[in-house]
Amino acid sequence: MKRGLAVLGMASAVAVFALAASGCSTLGYYSQSIGGHFALLNSARPVPDWLADPQTPPPLRERLALADAIREFAVTELKLPDNPSYRRYADLKRPAAVWNVVATPELDLTLKTWCFPVVGCVGYRGYFDRDAAEAEAAALRAEGLEAAVYPVPAYSTLGRLPGAYFADPLLNTFIRYPEGDLARLVFHELAHQVAYAPGDTVFNESFATAVERIGVERWLRANGSDAVRAEYARVEARREDFRALTLRTRRTLEAIFRSDRSPAEKRAAKAEAMAAMRAEHAALKAGPWQGFAGYDPWFERANNAALGVLGAYFEQVPQFEAIFRAQGEDFHRFYAEVQRLAALSAAERRATLGTRR
């Protein structure tokens, strides 16, 4: 399931330098942010150095060469930034770059937000240490909230720090992903450098998800082998089933929570909806997924917080894909229009994109 969670994440934690500088951060959070980010940067070496080093294991050398080709494709074909990002590699000796904490009320899917300079308010809080993330989640549960912790394979510093040293590196947390998913992640993170609306997680993540989906389709069409395309099609079919099932459940829960039922009635209806979701997952696993168990841990732990964060990545994706088509599938024009939207107020963006909230 680690792969499944990572794909769901495709997740940008926030710019760690901004989190650490936040006046509202505790000293402990400040310390772990700064220390964790610099430890990551200090571990990174340029990809050509790794490729030339005889001590680099051949499988890693092969993956770094593939990542380098994907990075060049991002520039030449997707018109994403040509800068030092994802041109170095670091082995963090752990399975995730950061662990994000998310939380919601018991009878609401609205994510708790934390506010920081530069990035604005976001619906998650990132930790370089899993135990620290779990402790934060426990504290939130003690306040009566539902909380979830999920691993994030990479995060973006939005390309705002100068020089190659500060650029976001490739990491061991995702370098061995299947080819299609490796391309998805690189395209997604680079998209955050193109347009970013402070405080609007749904806008930012949905835009990056749209770019990754457009980009990976073009990468596989131009470069993928038949076997790679077939593998990606299988993974994407499961991913679409997962999205459809969780979206239906979110809509059911939203209707329950907005109703005039009593809190006790809402809790009972919520339990029924969650049970139905898990039953449908079991049917998918036994049927078209042919026993694939990668999503099992997510469904076992699913709660409002886990469902709430999914909306940030998928809610506005169709709108961004429509904008891409309306701009003649020209990336320069597409990005210019998204940048224009990012400069609007949150209310103006929602009105333009035709979304709720």
Structure keywords:
single chain; 357 residues; mainly alpha; 3-stranded mixed beta sheet; 3-stranded antiparallel beta sheet; 15 helices; 59% helix; disordered N terminus
Could you explain the architecture of this structure?
With 357 residues, the protein is mainly α. The chain has one domain. It contains 15 helices and 8 strands. Strands 1-2-8 form a 3-stranded mixed sheet. A 3-stranded antiparallel sheet has the order 6-3-7. α8 crosses α13. It is globular and about 65 Å long.
Number of strand segments: 8
In whole angstroms, the N-to-C terminal distance is 31 Å
Q: Which runs of at least 5 residues are low in confidence (pLDDT < 50)?
A: 1-25
Query: Helix fraction?
Result: 55-70%
What is the helix/strand order?
HHHEHHEEEEEHEEHHHHHHHHH
Multimer state: single chain
The global form is: globular
Instruction: Please list the strands of the largest sheet in the order they lie side by side.
Output: 1-2-8
Radius of gyration: 20 Å
Structural class: mainly alpha
β-sheet strand percentage: 5-15%
**With helices defined by DSSP (H or I, 4 residues minimum), what is the helix count?**
15
Main β-sheet: number of strands, strand sense, barrel status?
3 strands, mixed
| Total domain modules | 1
Q: Would you tell me the overall average pLDDT?
A: 89
